[in-house]
Amino acid sequence: MYALLKRFFFLFDPEKIHHFTFKLIKFTLAIPGMKKIWRKNYVLEDEKLERKLFGLKFKNPVGLAAGFDKNGLLFNELAYCGFGFIEVGTVTPIPQEGNPKKRLFRLTEDEAIINRMGFNNDGLPALIKQLKKRKTELLIGGNIGKNKITPNEKAVDDYIACFEALHPYVDYFVVNVSSPNTPNLRALQDKEPLKNLLNTLKEANNKKSNSRPILLKIAPDLTNEQLDDIVEIFKETKIDGLIATNTTIDRSNLKTKNVESIGAGGVSGKPLKTRSTEVIRYLYKQSGGSIPIIGVGGIHSAEDAIEKIRAGASLLQIYTGFIYEGPKLVKEINEAILKL
Predict the structure, then answer these.
(1) Where does substrate bind (predicted)?
(2) The dihedral of CA 130, 136, 137, 138: what is its sign?
(3) Mean pLDDT for all residues in the chain
(4) 52 annotated to a ligand binding site
């Protein structure tokens, strides 16, 4: 069924069809009996799938990565796709349009996507308004970033603003300094700026009576030396975990012709699979398995997911694979995990 829908969806502009799909899912699940049908087809519940991490209990290890439901418009409905957790955002303190359109491109030959969205979102108040409508029991993560107009020397202020405002409404936080689509953002991954940012967030978190786990999302384009720094920073700041990885700026292994004509943007999907797994494996090895890692990047099958778990990932996230394979992918991964 989804294969037919995908052929139709892929006839249209990716960003426009993304918004259309949101409306279609909402409409479909509002039909009496449809939630029961989706639950039967896509949701797999088994105590053996439950994972306890960061002091939280995940229904299953397969989550939806940030960027799909940026503004928290669909997480209640997406719960019927079988996810164990859902991450909203990236959100910034004030709304921003993001980069000029067209900014989202399918590379069907590669089963990949290039995006240069640029943290387009409706801002903190709009996201909080949606989170107040939360009905699902699934864990919800908040992926936070800085506004484009905020200089890096004041970036901490934006992250703190997001942290303080979202704290009552999300179960964990993800610090996004690894998107390639906001100018100079990745400079915040440098050792000293990153330590300062994470320590400031930890201090704010420690003042709360109900602190939230804080995770760092990293780029796949870091060198081994930079990954060593990440391990050191993790130990020094005592954050709770890492998400490996964001999209890549590397296009060396793409099959699609004339891809450079698309312009700037991060690549996600199958071409990212190997590198993201390498990063997971390296971090796991260098930390002696002490770092909880959420593995994301190029998961298009149950086999891809198992590969990341064996490399050292405790939890998983999908995004581009969800678009290419449909919601059945979540259940297939969970079924494979049960067989381990």
Answers:
(1) 70, 115-119, 176, 181, 246-247
(2) negative
(3) 96
(4) no
Domain CATH number, residue 248? 3.20.20.70
CA count, 13 A, side-chain hemisphere, 127: 32
- The catalytic residue positions are 179
Q: H/E element holding 102?
A: none
Asked whether residue 90 is marked as a ligand-binding residue, the answer is yes
Sign of the torsion formed by the C-alpha atoms of 312, 318, 321 and 326: positive
The rounded distance, in Å, linking the Cα atoms of 157 and 92 is 11
Q: What is the dihedral of CA 207, 210, 211, 212, to 10 degrees?
A: -150
State how many domains the chain has: 1
Q: Residues with Cβ < 8 Å from 173, sequence gap 6 or more? A: 141, 142, 143, 144, 163, 166, 201, 212, 213, 214, 215
Are the beta carbons of 43 and 331 closer than 8 angstroms?
A: yes
Whether pLDDT at 191 is above 90:
no
Tell me, rounded to whole angstroms, the distance of Cα 258 from its chain centroid. Answer: 28
Q: Is 123 annotated as a binding residue?
A: no
* Domain span holding position 256: 2-338
pLDDT tens, position by position, 211-256: 999 999 999 999 999 999 999 999 999 999 999 999 999 999 999 9
